[in-house]
Amino acid sequence: MRTRLVLLSARLLDPVRGRFLPDTALAVSGGRITALGDDRRIRALADTSTEVIDLKGAVMTPGLVDGHLHPVSGAELTHGLDLSACTDLEEVRAALAGEVRSLAPGAWLHGWGLDPNAFGDRPVETAALSPVLDGVPALLQMFDAHSMLASPRALELAGVDGPRTFAQAAEVVCDDAGRPTGLLLEDAACELVETAAPRPTHAERRARLATALRSMAAAGLTGGHAMDANGESLALYAELDAAGELPLRLRVAPWCQPGADAGALRALIEQQGTGGALWRTEGVKLFMDGTIDNGTAWLERPDCHGESTHAFWPDPAAYTHVIGELHRAGVPTATHAIGDAAVRHALDAVEKARAAGERAVRHRIEHIETVPDDTLARFAELGVIASMQPTHCCDFTRADHTDNWSRRLGEERASRAWRCRDLWDSGATVVLGSDWPIAPYPPLGVMAGAGHRRPSRDLGQPPHGPEQALSALESLQAMTVNAAHAAGDEHEAGQLAVGHRADLTVLADNPLTTGATDLPDLPVLLTVLDGRATHRDASL
Length: 540
Description:
six-stranded mixed beta sheet
């Protein structure tokens, strides 16, 4: 087999040992690393058809993988007005007013990234945004993507004029008179209004997704664990893959929602392993709760508003049954569990499933925002992957606990925020991700946040829980070696080794010696997926 790609004059960083390999070059054929050695030996493997790139002393790592993201919904959601930089209501109103002026008559306004902290002590409702949205159909996605604000005109067009009943923990929030406040909690409620808005065409969705994925590759990502298969997701991945335009290797976990019957479970099981050259369906995503910020998490004690008292599954025992059925079928699961009660129940369900069957299945828990001491060791004991998003702690909470998340929880539980260090030290396999579009996808920013735990827009602020920081090496491992382990790919990914996938990230300098606050600005010079460059800096 001919050598397709040769990379020379590199510093090859081993994420397992945290040191450079003695080799300075590698060769690639058939999407795999076929040789490691010095420049002279590897150059000799090239012929006239081989692409040869001199990396000029740059640092090469195994390809960086985002452990939790939503490519398709993120590409669509972030097409609207970005409200993530707004810190108070005045800024939100000003941003909305500017967008309203640019709208055609009757057009819908779509916004995203709205932080509830911008409302201060006021309730999160559309009355706080009046009169800017008067007569304008608007949908404003809150930063957590589990809730949104719908303007009065949007509610009117959707025919939503009072409370509704759902099969999951969703809610059309209403005032004492039964009138909607505009706040919609969880997907089932949000979809009532979303379906009334004009939807993008298939071609528009494909173009937006392709653009987002190319930007991810330019940021150094070679892969991602996509935590949904909603809408046209699988068809879009298949189209881009067939056209040679899929720049990330994707592991896709479709959702299993409350009410799923035996037929739905059978379909999810049969769907496993399907996909294409660079994407596959593997695993199932479930929700044990919502979010702390909107009062839909599942906590062992209510929050300060008396909320976050229920599981997302109206009958938690039904969730436990589903975990058992999927475990027996050998299907790994990823459970969204943010509150302490949700995390505990998810661990209990895995423990029960393991006790009933001998299969070795790698289950995961996603987010794990606040947990007590007695849950930490159970992750390692049960082999449950801890999938964490440290930039949520950085950008949506504050060290002084004056933010919405911390106020809802109170001091005791807020002090247990994103316990990355404690989970790591207890023996858990920790995987890092962004949860994009909730937080930015650049992997160096995610790794940096795990180390500095400060607001990315104001690094001069004090860190939130600095004792929970990960080292630079641990953060790198969490997006390479550990991500491969979580996907069951450790035999072919996550390391620079002959026979492993040629998924590579090349950086201008050593990420282990670059300070955490400087790491997001470290240039990404080259990204390689399956042996082909998906991003190449002009300097190479």
